[in-house]
Write a structure and sequence with these properties.
The chain has about 500 residues and is mainly beta. Helix content is about 5%, strand content about 35%. The longest helix has 10 residues, at about 15-20.
């Protein structure tokens, strides 16, 4: 990757003005260019991009991407795992990571046995197509991949031949605007919490089973006799809520059992519904709730809107939540739709801005991220907290990102961009051990169209990307929407 040793690259004027206004000095070195218009097929170059180097404390340079899949102008690195030409996940129930290129980690997964930074390599390969406004990807411990469709409420299994077969419809979905069937997460009840046989207290911080979406898949021996549940975030006629359903049957013939409420009463609206759900490394269920077009409620702890919520697998409030008796974990959010954890337990969340700045935040319990008073960086610099509001660590203009799903593999975060129509990689530690800055690079600009979700495979060798061009805001092309796969190689760039 070519670095600019001095001077400002093309397109940096906006960022320069922003930095000087906040008094951070002339530390930033670049801004991402608007990508090439989307192609009708995945083959060939994915267009040019520009990498941005953002420092948590001081910045050192900018990187401009070269041809190919985007993000690098250097010689092609050695691939780490299965080729991106693979076309379908294994569905034979094999244990995650064993001769299965899809693995078992879902959204937010950290990629088993992967350390250090990684980057996408090669063009996206279609796994399944003809999906109708899909929203979320979840992978099961055996490697089976499930996706959902926002408007129909249908959950589909991606089968070995690349077909997408319906396994059931989540009851009560009332799709309108941005609402409908949104996030999915899978939970393997290895401790019997949901069966009522565990001695663990619902109000504690532990007692959880294996969360298939947390990046640490349960072994086949552990999960063989344990029930697996599919959790879903949906918009109903009266609210947003989370339900769980037992996942019955097996690969190629899964079905959904009866739904039970987990958490109800999350305010709904035509947009700003949030909707991402994930089990964290602590076994607790994390939920992003949008402000439901009532921005002031993001600052009211007693309201569930404009928050990240945390509950046990049964829906109870954990005893160690920051606000006693409340599922609220953090507040001051406008519309977060992506969460991920690093191997050291750091939690990240991606958030839609209003008209100016999208955000990537480090989430800590009880923290206030400023909405509606602050959008993007406030006082104090990236990640700083001033006047009780915590800043993001990275910001983007809204036409560069409009972020949704978020995943972490090794030391690199991957963020799906809707309005930006690209995949962003963010490496908090930079691209070398000596570089104490955050490296931000875009890939596939204009190639896939709107990207709604990104998940990692359990072995860390690839990413699954879910497009969202049929949601009423994109420009659908033949085969949309689709699930695609890209391979990963070592190094941030």
């Amino acid at each position: 990757m070519t670095r600019v040793a001095s001077g400002w690259p093309v397109g940096a004027r906006r960022v320069d003005a922003r930095v000087r206004r906040l008094g951070w000095g002339a530390g930033w070195r670049g801004a991402e260019r608007r990508g090439a218009r989307r192609r009708g097929a995945f083959g060939g170059a994915a267009g040019f991009g520009v990498a941005v180097v953002l420092a948590v404390s001081g910045c050192t340079g900018a990187s401009e991407a070269g041809p190919g899949a985007g993000g690098t102008a250097s010689a092609a690195p050695t691939t780490v795992g299965p080729s991106a030409a693979a076309t379908a996940p294994a569905t034979d129930g094999a244990s995650a990571g064993a001769a299965n290129p899809w693995g078992g980690a879902g959204t937010g997964g950290a990629g088993a046995s992967v350390t250090g930074a990684v980057h996408p390599e090669g063009d996206p390969a279609t796994v399944a197509d003809e999906l109708d406004a899909p929203w979320s990807i979840v992978t099961l411990p055996g490697g089976t991949v499930l996706v959902d469709e926002r408007g129909t409420g249908v959950v589909k299994e991606i089968r070995a031949d690349g077909s997408a077969g319906a396994i059931g419809t989540v009851p009560g979905v009332a799709a309108a605007g941005e609402g409908g069937l949104l996030g999915l997460a899978a939970y393997v009840d290895t401790t019997g919490v949901l069966a009522g046989t565990s001695a663990a207290a619902d109000g504690g911080a532990g007692g959880a089973g294996a969360a298939a979406t947390s990046g640490a898949s349960a072994t086949s021996a552990t999960t063989a006799a344990a029930a697996t549940y599919l959790y879903a975030y949906l918009t109903t006629a009266s609210d947003n809520r989370v339900v769980r359903m037992p996942l019955e049957g097996g690969p190629g013939a899964f079905s959904l059992g009866a739904a039970s409420d987990v958490l109800t009463g999350i305010p709904k609206a035509s947009n700003h519904n949030g909707g991402r759900i994930l089990f964290g490394p602590d076994g607790m269920l994390y939920i992003t709730a949008g402000d439901a077009n009532q921005s002031a409620n993001a600052q009211r702890v007693e309201s569930l809107s404009g928050k990240i919520l945390r509950v046990t697998p049964t829906g109870a409030v954990p005893g160690d939540n920051p606000f006693a008796g409340s599922p609220v974990y953090s507040l001051g959010h406008r519309n977060s739709q992506g969460m991920a954890w690093s191997s050291d337990g750091t939690m990240y969340a991606a958030e839609f801005g209003q008209n100016t700045w999208d955000e990537l935040n480090v989430i800590t319990p009880g923290a206030n991220y400023g909405w509606p008073g602050v959008e993007g960086f406030g006082e104090g610099g990236p990640g700083g907290t001033v006047h009780g509001f915590t800043n993001p660590i990275v910001e983007w203009s809204t036409d560069e990102a409009s972020p949704s799903g978020l995943a972490m593999v090794g030391g690199t975060l991957f963020m799906a961009g809707l309005g930006g129509e690209r995949l962003w990689s963010i490496t908090p530690g930079g691209d070398t051990p000596a570089l104490s800055s955050t490296l931000v690079v875009s890939y596939y600009a204009g190639t896939l169209g709107r990207i709604r979700d990104v998940v990692a495979t359990a072995d860390g060798t690839g990413l699954l990307l879910l497009t969202n061009n049929t949601d009423g805001r994109g420009s659908p092309q033949a085969g949309d929407d689709r699930l695609a796969r890209v391979a990963l190689s070592p190094g941030a760039s």
